[in-house]
Amino acid sequence: MITKIIETQNRMQVSEAIPPSSQAEMDRALNVLTAHKDAWAMMDIPGRIALLDQIKQDMPGVEGRWIASGLEAKENQPDSFDEFVEWYSISVIYRYIRILRKALQDILQFGKPEIPGKVSVRPNGQVVAQVVPYDWKEAMALPGIRAEVWMDPSVSLQNGGIPQASFYHTQDKEGQVCVVLGAGNVGGLIPGDFMHKLFVEGQVVALKMNPVNEYLGPLLEEGFNAVIKAGFLQGLYEGAHEGAYLRDHPAVDSVHMTGSDRTFEAILFGPGEEGRQRKQARQPQFTKPFSAELGNISPVIVVPGPWSEKDIQNQSKRLGSWLVPNSSHNCLTPRLLIQMQDWEHRQKLNNGIADFLEGIKTDKAYYPGSFELHQQFLDEHPEALQLGKPQEGHLPWTFIQDVDPTNEDDIVFKCEPFMSLYSETALEASDVVEFIGKAVEFANGKVWGSLVASIVVHPKSMKDPAVAEAV
Predict the structure, then answer these.
(1) Is pTM beyond 0.90 here?
(2) What dotted CATH number matches 2-6+16-113+177-259?
(3) What dihedral angle (degrees, nearest 10) is formed by the CA atoms of 340, 343, 345, 346?
(4) What is the pLDDT of residue 252?
């Protein structure tokens, strides 16, 4: 069941239950999408840009209610850091719109999107494209931040260069229907997923909201009314039963989800022992195209270097603060520090992180299963530090230090702690270069997931050619 956002005299409230989508409603939505999928596939670029412009005009009308509903659902206060986190989702939506619009203009003018930064080739022949900052606005908003895409080794700058905008160069386009199973944690991810399917892959979308944040559904429907009214997007609600009906429907060509690996594998292989056997045999029961973003135990490799006391203090706050946004219910939240065992500042850094977290306000652990998962980690690591002053419904900031790296079956290496928990392990190495190699091998080979990883290195360390090459 979902909820509407209603406005009282002083604040928004998440209330007024709405029933889940019935089978008839789901059929009706899929019929609408099927009737319009070819029109969307064949729509010209100016028509797509006009829809993006209309979305940009409509979204400001839902901003205030979006922020208020998120704060209400998570029991957070206005004018707080938590409100900033909610605004982040709104800003991400506008960034999607801005980048998609520019990409479409580039396709119209040049045949493909313009890569915003330098394109280079690594010594091994791998093509690298700088994609952040995207423009001068991002350069000002994100000073010192740069992001690159390292291409698949098969990509070459010869024979047409980097492949881009393949949908827009396809002849005889055929419409397709995609079911998007929306993320339950960060609202901004939801339009990111369905806008990618719409504007990059050219598919119409049946969006099934996650029960955790389905209160955003009516707001998304209002903000994206332009594509809904045109028959290219439909919003649907409730849980696993509705999701199963949609993904198995003969009108549906593909599925995308943002969620847990357990949900993904249950869909792909089926539940229980039979599903486990299918997974082992690599024989999926679900055979439609199925893309997913499934989270990660995000490692942070801390490279030893000439850190001052101020450096340790600053990096302790920085590393600790990465755990804080959205009650740590983020797929890219750093979860595991990897340090060099004999580094002289290792324990100082751990102590600094613990001291920082001890003084940070805890938040509601709103994601289902958080308390049970937290207890699983405590059962295996009763020595874990539990920090902060959690209220009812909150979890403490939890820090597990000195995890044995030789115990590959330890829960901290195998299970994503999708709540407010950090772990730390340390590797033996004779020098910094050897440590970097071992840490990378450990993160890639022993730690679950492949979504994101971070490396923290002192600028002076990068002046050592051996360290710079290893990084």
Answers:
(1) yes
(2) 3.40.605.10
(3) 30
(4) 98
Q: Which tokens in the block code for residue 215?
A: 């209160």
Cβ(12)–Cβ(68) under 8 Å? yes
The CA-to-CA distance between both ends of the chain, in Å, stands at 49
- Amino acid, res. 383: E
DSSP string across 121-168: E-TTS-EEEEEES-SHHHHHHSTT--EEEE--TT--SSTTSS---TGG
Place of tokens 């055929």: 174
Which residues on neighbouring strands pair with residue 364, listed in sequence order?
Answer: 394
CATH T-level topology, domain 298-470: Aldehyde Dehydrogenase; Chain A, domain 2 (3.40.309)
Residue type present at position 307: W
Decide: 52 and 100 in contact? Cβ < 8 Å: yes
* Residue 167 structure tokens: 């949908």
Q: Which residue has the tokens 């946004």?
A: 325
Q: Which of 264, 243, 221 has its CA nearest to residue 61?
A: 221
Instruction: Identify the helix (H) or strand (E) that includes residue 235.
Output: strand 233-236
Q: Nearest-CA neighbor of 364 among 387, 325, 389, 391?
A: 391
- Measured CA to CA, the distance from residue 199 to residue 167 in angstroms comes to 9
pLDDT digits (tens, 9 = 90+) for 227-280: 999 999 999 998 889 999 999 999 999 999 999 999 999 999 999 999 999 999
H or E segment at 28?
A: helix 23-42
